[in-house]
Every structure is written in C-alpha cells, then in structure tokens.
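[step 3/7] fold_predict: job queued, chain A
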Amino acid sequence: MAKPLSAEALVYGFTSAGDPQVSPDGTLVAYTLSTTDRETKKANTQVWVCGIDGSGARRLTWTGQVNASPRWSPDGQSLAFTSDRVEKVGLFVIPMAGGEAREVTRHHGNMNELSWSPDGTRLLFTAAYDPANPNGEPPKKDAAPVVRVTNRIDYKQDVRGYLNDVRAQVYVVDVSTGKKRMVTGAAVDHMAAAWSPDGAQLAVGVATNNGMVSRLGLVPADGEGAEVRFITPDGGVVATCAWSPDGKRIVYIGDTWPSSQTDFFVYDLGSGETRRVTTDLQCLPDAGFPPIVPSSRPVWLDDRRVLFPAVRAGAAGLYVIDLATGAVEQIEGERELRVGFSTDAARRYVAQSVASLDSMGEIAVWDRKEGSRRFVTSYAAPVFAEMPPAGWERFDVSRAGLTIEAWLLKPAGFDPAKKYPVILDIHGGPNGFYGYGFNPIQQHLATNGFVVVFSNPRGSSSYGRDFTQRVTKDWGGEDYLDLMAVMDRALQEPYTDPARTGIWGYSYGGYMTAWTIAQNHRFKAAVCGAPCFDLESMFGTSDISHFFGALQWGGPPWEDREWYATHSPSQRAHNTKTPTLIIQGEADERCPVGQSEQMFVTLKKAGCEVELARYPGGSHLFLRIGPPEHREDVLNRILGWFKGHLGEPEPASV
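[step 4/7] structure written:
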C-alpha cells in the first residue's frame, strides 16, 4: 500500500539533480547531485557527467561537501567548478581526458556565476567584497562585535544579513597563472556578467535598492576597479542579457520600471541606441531567484532570432523571439516548472532541471532538431514508488472580468466516497505564481489526507503585465475576493468538507492569511508564515519595503496613512477567532520577525488560540535553504496543526 510523503522523506529522501550544462559538442551533460544526510544533517553536492542521452553517468568530484557550478571550457576539454575542499573556497579545472582537478585560485567568499572567456584563457566569477575587510579576515578571538554604522538605506538584505558597503563584485582570473583581478569596484551589486565575443568587454548587471532596481552597463574585461558605463536608464530593471554573435548588439530582458513583467530590448553598440522589441510579453522569461538561483541567459540562434525559457500561466516552455518583428513563438512546453538553461554550441540541445506536480529534481534534454525530449536522470523514482505524489486537477474561476486559474491536489489513495478537510494555500509576492511545480508543503499536506487548493489570483505573474499589476494599491481587495471565489468553487466538490477548512500562506501569502482570518471566520485553522502584518512598520523595517512598498502601496505611509491602516491586518486582527500557528525565521529581513511578534501579541490579547514558532537564524527563504532540521520541523508542525484542528478524512454521509 502506498505511503504518504513524510517530512523525513521530503527533506532527506530525495537526490536532486541540478545546474545542467551541455558540452559545446553536444555529447555530454555535466550537472550537480545534491543529497542531505539523515545522520549528520549535512548537505552534500558533487559534480557528475553523463551522455546527452543519459548514458554512462559518472561522478567527477569525490572530495569536499559542496562542489558546484560546473562550466565547460569553450573547447569542451575542461570543466571548471567551485569546491569547499580547500580552506575558503577554491576554483578548480578538471581535464575531461583524465587526471586530477587543478586548483586555479581560491577566494574568501563564495564564487558565483562562473563563466569562461571565449578564448578559454580566463574565468570570471562574482563574489562579495567588503571594502572595510578586503581580504575577508575573521574577527579576532574574544573581540567585541564591530559597531555597525551606516548611511545607506540598503544596508541589509535577506539571506545576506547586514551589508553596509559589502557588495558583489566581478572578478577575472587567468586560468594558467591563477592571477585574479577585481574588475568592478563601486559599492553596488554587480551580477550576471557576460563576455563580449572578442573577450574585450563585459556586460554587467548592476543592482541597487536590494535588487529592486537594476541597470546594464559595460566594463573592460582587462580593467581593475573600473567604473561601469551604463547603457540602460536608471529606475528600470534588467533580468539578463546576451551579446549577438558579431558583438555589435546586446539583447536584454527587462523593463523601464519594476513592473514584475519584463520585455525584450536590443542595444546597438555602434549607435548607442536602444530599441524596445516587445511591449506586452505574455510570458515571463526566467529571471532566476536572486540571490540563490541565477537568471537564464537567452541564446542567439542567428542574427535576429533568440531562444529563451519562460513561464506562461504557471507552466514552463521554450520560446523564440524574432528581434526584427517582435514575434514570439512557443516551440515547446510542458505542465511543469524548470530551473536553469544550457545549450551546446550548435544550439541543438537544451538542458534544464525539471519539477512538476508528479516529479522533482530531474534533468531533461530537449532536442530541437528531432523535436523530442528525454529525461537523463530519474533519481526521485524510488521515493515516488513507495510514496507517490498527490493526484491533481485544474479548474478556473471567472469573476470581475478575469479568469483565475487554480489547482487542486488530492490525497494519495483518494476515495471519492469520503469527505476531506480542505486547505487553501496562498502564494507569496504578491507577484509570484503557483503552477505545475512540486511544492513540499502542499505535497506533505495532500498525501497525508487533505485536499489542497492553490491558485493565481490577480497580481500573479506569468500572465502579462496587466494581470500582474491588478494588485497594485489593492492588497486585500479584489485579490482577496479571487481567493475566496476559488475556495468556494473547490468546496462544490462532493468530497470536500465545508465544515473543516484551513488556510495557509507565506510572505504575501501570510499577509493574505492574516487579512482573511481577521474578518472571515469560515476557516477552522490557519498557519500564517512570515506575514506582512503592519504595512507602515513593514515599510521601515523590511530590507526592500522602502522601495517595494512605495510601488505596491501607492507611496510612503506619510502620504496616505489611512490607506496603510485600512489595508493592514494589524488594524483588524483583534477580531480573529481562527486558531492560528505563526511560522517565522528570526533572521528574516524581508518580512521581519517583528511582524509576527505583533500578530502573536494581538491574537493572544484577543483571546484567540495562537502559537508562534520561531526558527533561529532563519532568513525569509529558510523554507528552501534553512537547516534540514528546521525544514523538517516546519513540515511536521504545519501538518500537526491542521490535523489537530481539522481531523482526518471521514466517510461521506449517505
């Protein structure tokens, strides 16, 4: 008999394949394999390689806990990667013909975004640089913590913590000598650097306001501490870019303002002019998930067509844009979500890491010539054979002139004759999206006896700019009504129990959970994760809300305090009657711990049943990258809360 997915299996049971890289000649795929040991609770990542068809898989690295970022040299004869096998972090190159990996250099911080120069003589990477401690020296033993004084508004960032002037810089290292130079120097984040075809220049993304604003600029590849010459205007965003094969143009994906929906632009180096290619792209190009997942760089197919990965309506696909006409064609797509994007030199093969509602952590290769796809890994199969994922359905809700897409997960061993408790899961953002991806919390709840409902209300991305912007200055308005309509529709199913409903959400989803239970007593249990609870205090304490809040809420609080008050759950939370569990990382800089503390005290004083679970050292992303013990605890704690208040499925009454 099939077992439900356990928290232990979700945290420790899976081997995840990621960061696939196709060799230049299209014969091999290098990738990473990550596991978490049940006994030591430590993650382990090693580099593997297999044939383009998945054959002959073999492990390349054997020492160190974390070996990452495999990148092929232009001639395909070597593979660069980073490793913690040495003190600090090392950059290594291993010859594919055989032999030991050679250390090129090491650095005092993590080396990210590795990229070979076109001639194969240099490697670039980005790494944090502290002008107050350029060599990354550890603090002296028994010394008092350094006093923190800042004069910049972006002095901290979630995951990275207190920054002051610490920012990511671009480094270039000579592969033969190991000599490295810091190419950039300004105290702003530099990211996603791309070599020009002749290796003379770098196109560099420069982010400010903790990534809320970004620009694209040029620096000489042989420079040191160079000033970036910007080629895009201030106040916009740039997700990623790619040089044309002749080096005369740069295509970039971004917008002239942070609209949460990007378009295509082309910059001409000869004239210095920029042409906007699209104005209303209906898919969302992959921009990664900074700071833990880099963006996917588009690929030129010829002098006018560009291949890129994107998401439309919660589903991943490959698209081609004609830069001359702006025409966009989807050439491939599946009901799944993906990470990464790599091709061979001939642009025939495309490798991506895939997760769906039925699978997770596998690598697939799309053959453009044959028009077919093959999975080259199947590491999750043994786990799913014993503990299968939840079944699922799709449905739509129409209201206020829009179609709201929604999904419903059914428990393993689903019996239509039973009545199941129902949990509404609300995504974050608000400009995030749900879709055909594997979500551990959803799967844990669903396979353990709950019907889980999730949707993309107005404000969600992957539906175009108009749909995404519908939530601006309307938090808790039409978005809330969309979600309640989705829940109403789900409860029309004969196997759902309207008397036993729960609600759960994280970040903006936490906001919406707190907002809902403060005024609507239909839910019998709630789990509220890292909520935006008081928008005015959020504006001044979150790492991004001084900028993000002005965009989302129509300006700073002193310009419209009434709006901030009437749209903050804090003003209504004393009416809450729903038993509530609050989940919070203590080092969360995005939705700071004070938001959860304020909610906890308000509900406690109001006589509502409430618990606050705090996770020491947890960032806003601790559900994804936190200690495995904490991630396991969250899964079990959420399940326990809902089981304790909603119970198990019951036979339907006759």
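[step 5/7] annotate
The domain at 387-651 is CATH 3.40.50.1820 (Rossmann fold).
The longest strand covers residues 496-506.
exit 0
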